Amino acid sequence: MDQKFNLWFTEYQTNDMALSCRVKKTLHQEQTQFQNLAVVDTDQFGRMLLLDNVIQTTIMDEFVYHEMITHVALNTHAAPKRVLVIGGGDGGAVREIVKHPSIEKVVHCEIDGAVIEASRKYLPEIACAFDDPRVEIVVDDGIKHVRNNKNIYDIIIVDSTDPVGPAEGLFSASFYSDIYDALKEDGIFVAQTESPFFNRDLIPRLYRDISGIFPLTRLFLACIPTYPGGLWSFTMGSKKYEPLDVDVAAIPQMDTRYYSPAVHRTCFVLPPFVKELLK
Ligand code: SAM
Q1: What is the pTM of this model?
Q2: What letter would DSSP give residue 248?
Q3: Residue with CA at minimum distance from ligand 1 atom 27
Q4: pLDDT at 1
Q5: What is the 161 CA–ligand 1 centroid distance (Å)?
Q6: pLDDT of residue 3
Q7: How is 88-143 classified by DSSP, letter by letter?
């Protein structure tokens, strides 16, 4: 009887906890200027993008993250035209943004061009909107990009790696303040803000920093099986629009598998242990 090879990838999600899955094939491996990059194929999750041995995205559950980091903010804004994505080198956020007919321009600022190239080649169903004429790719540090651009974006999405290495500054109050200035007067900012189970010091700090800068701060949740704990948080800072006031009945029908008008509401319903973090 044929047996599967016993080749496994293990991500140490904390010092004391790991997620392992059997690898069918290693498709790509390189050391880029910024990080160790790999794409592996697995039975459980399909192809996975790994940066410094941390799962970034997988074919099986990427839709949850990419739909939630984009559509909640885009459907909160009255008419988003110009969007900035920082990080997000796999292209999933950009793919979701261009589904909105009001969009005129998406600037995608990713520090590591090698992530974009590997995603184009090995994750084409995620990286499929890079050639949309509305998309401009800028290979640069997002921190520098927001510092040099004032009052031009309707939405800024921070689709970053964890707060270590080049992404550390993407979780700082001075960066949030530059984001505020890069947004127009009714702009909205959203960032992935890690796990409410395992980042119990980080989330309150980020929430406090963002609340100190934006008149409106809201945290929302989604279920993402390959991220530590499975439950993931996103934090929105808004200059004017309240995501909970959106008339969800008026949200146009979208081609999505996790986000829906009902989920737009329910994702802001926080269990008491998460609310506790924001006090
Ligand atoms: N969904 C993912 C997660 O939470 O694991 C994030 C995916 S995306 C691949 C993260 C990207 O952020 C990486 O490609 C990384 O190169 C990029 N990045 C990290 N620091 C950055 C910075 N300072 N400016 C722009 N991009 C950055």
Answers
A1: 0.97
A2: G
A3: 87
A4: 65
A5: 4
A6: 86
A7: -TTSHHHHHHTTSTT--EEEEEES-HHHHHHHHHH-TTTSTTTTSTTEEEEES-HH
Q: Which residues, given as ranges, of the chain have pLDDT below 70?
A: 1
Ligand 1 atom with minimal separation from the 116 CA: 14
User: Ligand 1 centre and the CA of 88: distance in Å?
Assistant: 5
Name all domains of the chain by residue range, CATH numbers in brackets. 3-58 (2.30.140.10), 62-277 (3.40.50.150)
For residue 59, what are its two tokens?
């074919």
Contact 155, 74 (CB under 8 A): yes
Q: pLDDT at position 35, please?
A: 97
Kindly list the protein residues whose Cβ atom lies closer than 6 A to any atom of ligand 1.
34, 51, 56-57, 65, 86-90, 109-112, 115, 141-143, 159-161, 166-167, 170, 192
**Is 97 in contact with 123 (CB distance < 8 Å)?**
no
Compute the half-sphere exposure of residue 161: CA atoms within 13 Å on the CB side of its CA: 26
Contact 91, 128 (CB under 8 A): yes
Interval between CA 249 and ligand 1 midpoint (Å): 33
